[in-house]
Amino acid sequence: MGDALAHLRICDLTGQLAGAGATRWLASFGAEVIRVEDPVRQGQWDILRGSPPYKDDRRGIEYGGAFNNHNVEKLGVTINLRTDEGRQLLADLIATSDVVTENFSAGVMEKFGFDYPRLRQLRDDIIYVSNCGFGHTGPYRDFRSWGPVAQAVSGLTHAVGLADEEPAGWGYSYLDHTGAYYMAMAIMMALWHRQRTGEGQWVDLSCTEAAGNLHGADVLDWSVNGTTARSATTPDSNRSTSPLMVPHGVYRCQGDDEWVAISCRDDDDWQSLLAVMGHEGVRLELNHRQFRALEGRREFENDLDRLLGLWCRQRSRWQIEDELQEVGVPAAAVRTPAERIDGDIATGGRDLWPVVDHPQMGAMRVDGQAVEFSKTPWTIEYPAPTLGEHNAYVFGEILGLSEKALAKYRSNGVI
Amino acid sequence: MVGPLHGLTVVEIAHPFCAFAGKLLADAGADVILVEPPEGAEQRTYEPFAERRHVAAGFIADSELSLAWWADNTSKRSVVADLDTGPGRQFFRQLVAEADILLEAERPGLLADRGIDYTDLTGQPLSRHRSSPPAGALGPPPVNEQLIQVSITPLGRVWRRPVSEGHRHAEMTDLTIMARGGPMAMCGYDDHTLAPMRSRGDQGIRTACHVAVMATMTALLARDAFGGQFLDVSMVAAANVTTEAGSHGWLASQQKPYRQTGRHARPSLTEPAQVECADGRYLNTGAGARSGRDFDALLAYLTELELVDEAGPDMIAALERGGGYEDLTMDQVDRDPDANATFKAGRRAMRLIGQHLTAHEAFLGLQSRGIACGVVWSADEMMQDPHFVDRGFPTDVYQPQLDREVTYPGPPIRFTKSPMSIRNPAPRLGEHTDDVRRQLR
Questions:
Q1: Which of these, B377, B378, B379, lies nearest to B408 by C-alpha position?
Q2: Same domain membership, residue A307 and residue A249
């Protein structure tokens, strides 16, 4: 069973989500990911260590819900890189690792004395993947970044919102997840290249550039047609312009702040929607000839949305989802976390939300992976490491340090 | 130099749900052979199009002018094979016989009905959880036992739990995936009479494609030890595990996020994080000021811009207090009123600065003082930003339909020894059918 990546060891200096999310993928497929944390700041160079959400409102560096989620299946060690002995420990760890990962601001690894040339001295075919907001070259190389910052600069924030309104942006760090996904791809592609050629390399990943790759059609519309996304005609981002689909929107339903998404891909979907509506008032208006073909629905989209909105407002979002899905028209209730995690048969239960048993927090449900492998499934059983939890195993068994040396390093603040 | 996946062969059955995954593999160096029906892939009909007045002589077919198609199909080759016919399927089997990976997003059951699904092609079961019928009883023998097949469907194909036919065959679009999968409930405006929002650019589809590429790479790295396998990506599951606190906030402490303009959804309304600047563009203040150094820098910047009076004594006092913190943790901000007031003052100071400058000036001014924030660019503005131009991110590609070079977003990952690159623009329909057939013989 499993263990697709059990042959790999990662020396992991990442944190937050944009970095930790990448090595989380590798760990859930069996890679030995050794997270290096700073004992002096109790691991809080990763701001998520000890940050909310908390289970039962218990606080402290071992109680961060996000940290636990992002670091399952990893080993954790502490190394004080301000000391010579600490830097030597990291050097020894790197020499036995396939990959070094980090998402510090540009220049931090250099400052610690671990830039790429040094890493190569430690292991010639090392793969080094750095991940920062703006990359390691260019005028903004020293700028700092968080998910919302890179989202803003890359065009992602601007891509969400209603026409003529402030950008709504993303209500979470979409790009931290996505930057982590690109970092995981980078690591594995570089490993594949090494497996084929024997050659390691440095990968300079910029989250903002990864995101700049997510709006290809908009960029081409500008470079080919001169159309800018900031034009007065930029529509509500719930509408579909590529391809054109009408209706294509989110409509308010019965209840308090309850909504349903409906999209008609073609005239057949539109006719199916009308059939579901039966013979009530707005259906007669929607049956008007002007709406029959896409061109007309597009021209009178505002009228159509208003009428369809009246129909939805009288119904529950679940009823609309059921009735439209039944006839093959894409429709979905906008689901809250509770409704999708605990209430959706397609994604509920332990298959997508595994449980890990954390020594301080107790049983915690965490994100699973969105893919099933027929031979080497992912496994998420172990929680995030407590601070320095695996010092004895990693420094003792992997690096061969004696009990005495370990005790000394503990007492003089090296680990 | 060639890309990291040079030497790999991918057969992709053209579909809008998997096109972007194919593009990432192709730009990374894999030989991605797109299998299109005789009338061309559906995505070729997607808006926007290159406007007629720009089009070079000889290119009039709409199927060659979709910019959505161009964007998602760079570096691939195109062959025509009608999978509804015996000869088309035979050609397809020949292609798969030589391939490392089959990438597809076909409706569950469709490939099996045609006798060209994983079990038919490899002689192995689709899933370790259920036994598929043995292959080859009547049809042709398996063609590639080492094949990695990656499938992208709205709810997954062989997901572990039993699901009704109705669920497995769900018809979905990017919009309904984002509604059902969770992102949409977290995005929108403070004003909840306005709808929850999804993004332009089909980010739900892209997220599934990211999972597909990660899964493909994982299976490749495991292939020597475990052989080929079937990878079943669920698009709704992909959205579900890509919502940050939307999921782990609920899982850890049953938090109910409330969508808010331009910032994270939280259980209650928070301080605005976005500001309209003097030029009408917006600045996003990111995670706000966090350290004593940040607060000192904000105070100095306000002084330099002569905004101390406008800031008012309360904000100035809070910033001065902020200078005393080493690092402000989220836990402190959460429960210590002084820390909370200081944190809010930092955001307000950033907003005040933004109101007096253009968004780009405020971005440069704050960032050069060590304070994280972001100018809200549109996608095309990002491509013209001096930093990304300096890094060579915007990439010019010769586009035969226009007889000129066109600017594309550059590679998302910067490998220093095996660079990703756009080797050729999206293929014309069947452009490589003859070449590929010749190679097979």
A1: B379
A2: yes
Please list every residue in chain A whose beta carbon sits closer than 8 Å to the beta carbon of residue B238.
370-371
- From B331's Cα to the closest Cα of chain A, the distance in A is 6
Of B226, B408, B412, Cβ closest to residue A375: B226
Interchain CB distance below 8 Å, A185 and B413: yes
Best A342, A373, A379 residue to mutate vs chain B (most B CBs within 10 Å):
A373
Among candidates B261, B263, B377 on the partner chain, residue whose Cβ is nearest the Cβ of A155: B377
Query: Which CATH number covers residue A50?
Result: 3.40.50.10540
A180 in a structural domain: yes
- The pLDDT tens digits for B81-129 are 999 999 999 999 999 999 999 999 999 889 999 999 999 999 998 876 5
Q: ipTM value, please give it.
A: 0.98
User: Is A118 in the same domain as A259?
Assistant: no
Residue A225 lies in a domain: no
Is residue A4 situated within a structural domain? no
Q: What is the pLDDT of residues B236-263, one digit of tens each?
A: 999 999 999 999 999 999 999 999 999 9
Specify whether A144 is located in the same domain as A31: yes
A208 and A325 assigned to the same domain: no
Select from A157, A160, A189 the residue whose CB has the most chain B CBs within 10 Å, as the one to mutate to test that interface.
Answer: A189
Contact A157 B262 (CB under 8 A): yes
Same domain, A18 and A166: yes
CATH 3.40.50.300 applies to domain B9-242+391-440: no
**Which residues of chain B make contact with A158, given a CB cutoff of 8 A?**
376-379
Residues of chain A positioned with their CB less than 8 A from the CB of B70? 216, 220
Domain containing A333: what range?
A: 240-339
How many domains is chain A built from?
2
A282 and A255 assigned to the same domain: yes
Return mean pLDDT, chain B. 93
pTM above 0.95, yes or no: yes
